[in-house]
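Quick one before lunch.
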Amino acid sequence: MADFKIAVVSGDGIGPEVTRESRRVLEKIGSIYNHTFEFTEVLAGGAALDQVGECLPKSSLETCLASDSVLLGAVGGPKWEGYPGDQRPEMALLGLRKAMGLFANLRPAIIHPALSDASPIKTNIIGKSLDILIVRELTGGIYFGERGRRMGALGEEAYDVEAYSETEIRRIAVTAFEAAMKRKKRVTSIDKSNVMESGRFWRSIVKDVAKNYPEIELNHMFVDNAAMQLIKSPQQFDVILTTNMFGDILSDEAAMITGSIGLLPSASLGSSTLGMYEPVHGSAPDIAGQQKANPISSILTAAMMLRYSFALNEEADAIERAVEDTLNSGCRTEDIATEGETVLTTKQMCDEVLKHLG
Ligand code: NAD
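Model of the nicotinamide-adenine-dinucleotide complex:
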């Protein structure tokens, strides 16, 4: 039995709808396994811009930092598109990641057997199911490197610098190897070491970290080949370890391979157990407030929180099994329903998951 404080950033669009459901699942898990989850609603994103004029108020940040974990719905939407870049709702995510020191982004790309037809890849390639975990470095590399404009030999030019320190590579590699130890014990590290010095450095540090994990099978792949291999033979991957920019691109590619964005969770972690957990999808303004959103990505996001922040593996397994059983029993929200199938609302889909949990 344990008590956990969870800061909930429901956010905008479908964020509040799906987060409401994952909270219900956590409450049920709490009652089955005797844990107390204390939820504190935190204002951030577009909702915060509307109410207090800034996307991440100081009090919201403080509540998140004082919690055991942060559960996020989604932020942003067309209403705030006219705001200057540094005031947009999405900046709340960057502010939270920075303040919480979240340098690792974990994004599973999972195909549930009941939905293998949803993948745009032929079933003979994708197989009946798929389970890849992408571990992306989140706070370094080209997105945070030196940048600017200057005059070059051919006129004005722009530049962004890819730079990685040994510390940054080592800690993200450890995250990937530790995750792989709980899975099939295979890591594929992705770089561009045939061209980039930072890629050669990345590869050498990853090899060094691997010495501490003799049970792990480590492979290296150039990013262009990895983009092809994800389509050609995705089953070869277990854990993919990569840089900020390559991870940004490959994780979206992997999400597309699964065929349903409404099913994918993600976690952002740092060196403590405090993490931020959010569905891969955005605020889906086109379906917001209509009970059409699939709550499963938020529910699986809650399962990741139990596993990675609270070390409640049995409870996380129970949620994942309940989701699998719900899908196997034919329950579908609009995004994953095929013609003729009954379409459930956001709440009804969660009701089914709760039944299977019970
Ligand atoms: P989106 O993920 O919100 O939507 C893309 C498509 O997927 C839409 O057709 C939507 O209806 C559908 N979809 C998404 N989630 C779904 C779900 N749970 N169930 C059923 N269908 C679902 O991406 P977008 O339209 O590019 O972005 C909308 C807003 O969200 C933008 O303002 C963007 O900046 C923001 N965004 C926020 C986050 C975040 O908060 N982490 C992530 C991505 C985008």
